[in-house]
TrEMBL record:
Taxonomic classification: Bacteria, Bacillati, Bacillota, Clostridia, Eubacteriales
Name by which UniProt lists this protein: Putative flavin-nucleotide-binding protein
Pfam family, one: Pyridox_ox_2
Cited InterPro entries: Pyridox_Oxase-rel, Split_barrel_FMN-bd
Coiled-coil regions, chain positions: none
Amino acid sequence: MRRVDKEITDQNLMEEILKKAQVCRLAVSYRDMPYIIPMNFGYADRVLYFHSAQEGLKLLILRENPQASFEVEIDTQLVPSEQGCNWTMRYQSVVGFGEVEFINGLAEKREGMKHILQQYSDNITFPNDAALEEVTLFKLKINTMTGKKSGY
């Protein structure tokens, strides 16, 4: 990282950022075409969990190339200045790389969905098995991640 003063090296702080974030941007590549998707997600133990419809471009891409990267950020705030070129942002972020695996069994789907729901609330009604069968769940096992902060 070029700006070492902004680097987050504390794994616990990166975990806190992942647990607090509301949106995860999933980046994939399809035949040399980049594609990025903002998604709801869940996080636990260096694994990101996602749910999706049963078909679509991101699933087509991930089945062909399961390598992916991600980005989340929290506490964003615009910091204006008198000169336009000196405006900046406050933020804390995590970027990482990993490989996607599709989740097929109902027990595994329940576990993945639990992490997704807990990302947003402890008070969400859990879907029944029939509803779980209608969605695609996949997980990204994080191989590497780095954190960055500005203004904190």
